[in-house]
Amino acid sequence: MTPQNRTEQVVELLTPAEVARLFRVDPKTVTRWAKAGRINSIRTLGGHRRYRAAEVSALIDGSHVVDP
């Protein structure tokens, strides 16, 4: 497959601080939500959590419910 034919899917990821700002909560709350399975997270190679922007938007729009 050549680079011209390859379609790359870019997924926008948010930090815990960015997600916290959107929900108006502390970043540690976002981490607790992830540990509890209330919001999906991705781990970076360094072990940091990142969140898919599309999933966060769906939560904000009311598609999913997050309890603080």
Overall description:
By secondary structure, this protein is α+β, with helices and mostly antiparallel strands. A hairpin with a 5-residue loop joins strand 2 (42-43) and strand 3 (49-52). The mean pLDDT is 87. It has helices at 16-23, 27-36, 53-60, and strands at residues 13-14, 42-43, 49-52. It contains three helices and three strands. Helix 1 (16-23) crosses helix 2. It starts with 12 loop residues before the first strand and ends in an 8-residue tail after the last helix. Strands 1-3-2 form a three-stranded antiparallel beta sheet. It is globular.
Question: Which short descriptors sum up this protein?
Answer:
68 residues, alpha+beta, three-stranded antiparallel sheet, 3 helices, 12% strand, globular, DNA-binding
Number of strands: 3
How do the strands line up in the largest sheet? 1-3-2
**SS element count, helices:** 3
The whole-number mean of residue pLDDT values reads 87
* Gross geometry: globular
Beta-strand content estimate:
5-15%
Overall SS class? alpha+beta
Q: What distance separates the N and C termini? A: 46 Å
* Radius of gyration, taken over Cα atoms and rounded to an integer in Å: 14 Å
Poorly predicted runs of 5 or more residues: none
Helix and strand sequence: EHHEEH
Q: What helical percentage do the residues reach?
A: 25-40%
Largest sheet at a glance?
Answer: 3 strands, antiparallel
